[in-house]
């Protein structure tokens, strides 16, 4: 074969190889790396409360945030120090069981792309609530004061219980620093709420509980309650 013929054959092989590579690249399915993770959020607004506004945002891996506006708090009988109004923005991590419950409920409600507010009249104002879902499998928002839908009610109570725990963490931090005598009653109250299921996800305030449990200057029963809550939190994560 002459040099010219060999060169021509080489060019032909390179061209065919290039076409084959392009064809294979075209057949490779594309993945959307920018696809947002599924997220559920719950917003609550009711003027006049200690925390008149808060919002919880939870992703399907359990990571999320708690954002809240705390109203100004006056000094108490046991503490000469009040609390100034403040905005709270904290990262949180929920247990797999609670996360699964939240997302199962959201999807059973068509990603909140549905009417969830009760049409009954003369219902007491329990606060404006907004449930929102966003993800590649759907999206939606529903706003309500009260809902007769059991799934909506279950989700509402779950989020309220998580927010309650977060706010208790704030109170415990304040009492531990400025009003140690007040810790006894507050810890007893939190313990009761946990037993009744009105306080969930103790892991979100574990650093605060650990600080109380490790403080030998506190009375023993307060430290024991904090230790038991830490043990319960650890068990919920397994």
Name the features:
6 helices; globular; disordered N terminus
Structural class of the secondary structure composition?
alpha+beta
How many helical elements?
Answer: 6
Low-pLDDT segments, ≥5 res: 1-34
* Share in helix: 40-55%
The SSE order reads HEEEEHEEHHHH
How many strands appear in the DSSP assignment?
Answer: 6
Oligomer: single chain
Order of strands, main sheet, comes to 4-3-2-1-5-6
Strand content: 15-25%
* Rg from Cα: 27 Å
Distance between the termini: 73 Å
Give a written overview of the molecule:
With 238 residues, this protein is an alpha+beta fold. 44% of the residues lie in helices and 19% in strands. The protein has 6 helices and 6 strands. It has helices at 3-27, 96-108, 150-178, 183-195, 206-213, 220-236; strands spanning 39-45, 53-59, 63-70, 86-93, 128-135, 138-144. Helix 2 runs antiparallel to helix 3 and helix 3 packs antiparallel against helix 4 (183-195). The radius of gyration is 27 Å and the shape is globular. Mean pLDDT is 87; it is low at 1-34.
Fold blueprint:
Layout (H helix, E strand, L loop, with lengths): L2 H25 L11 E7 L7 E7 L3 E8 L15 E8 L2 H13 L19 E8 L2 E7 L5 H29 L4 H13 L10 H8 L6 H17 L2
Brief description of this entry?
With 238 residues, the chain is of the alpha+beta class. Helix content is 44%, strand content 19%. It has a 6-stranded antiparallel beta sheet, with helices on one face.
């Amino acid at each position: 074969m002459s040099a010219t013929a060999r060169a021509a054959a080489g060019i032909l092989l390179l061209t065919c190889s290039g076409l084959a590579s392009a064809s294979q690249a075209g057949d490779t399915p594309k993945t959307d790396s920018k696809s947002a993770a599924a997220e559920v959020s719950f917003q609550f607004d009711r003027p006049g409360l200690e925390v008149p506004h808060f919002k919880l945002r939870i992703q399907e891996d359990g990571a999320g945030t708690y954002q809240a506006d705390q109203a100004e708090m006056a000094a108490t009988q046991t503490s000469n120090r009040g609390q100034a109004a403040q905005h709270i923005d904290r990262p949180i991590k929920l247990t797999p069981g609670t996360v699964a419950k939240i997302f199962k409920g959201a999807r059973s409600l068509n990603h909140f792309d549905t009417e969830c507010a009760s049409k009954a009249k003369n219902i007491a104002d329990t606060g404006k609530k907004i449930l929102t879902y966003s993800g590649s499998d759907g999206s939606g928002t529903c706003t309500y004061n009260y809902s007769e839908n059991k799934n909506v009610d279950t989700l509402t109570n779950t989020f309220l219980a998580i927010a309650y725990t977060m706010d208790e963490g704030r109170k415990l931090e304040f009492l531990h620093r400025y009003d140690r005598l007040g810790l006894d009653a507050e810890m007893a109250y939190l313990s009761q709420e946990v037993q009744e299921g009105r306080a969930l996800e103790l892991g979100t305030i574990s650093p605060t509980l650990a600080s109380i449990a490790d403080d030998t200057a506190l009375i023993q029963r307060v430290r024991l309650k904090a230790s038991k809550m830490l043990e319960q939190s650890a068990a919920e994560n397994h």
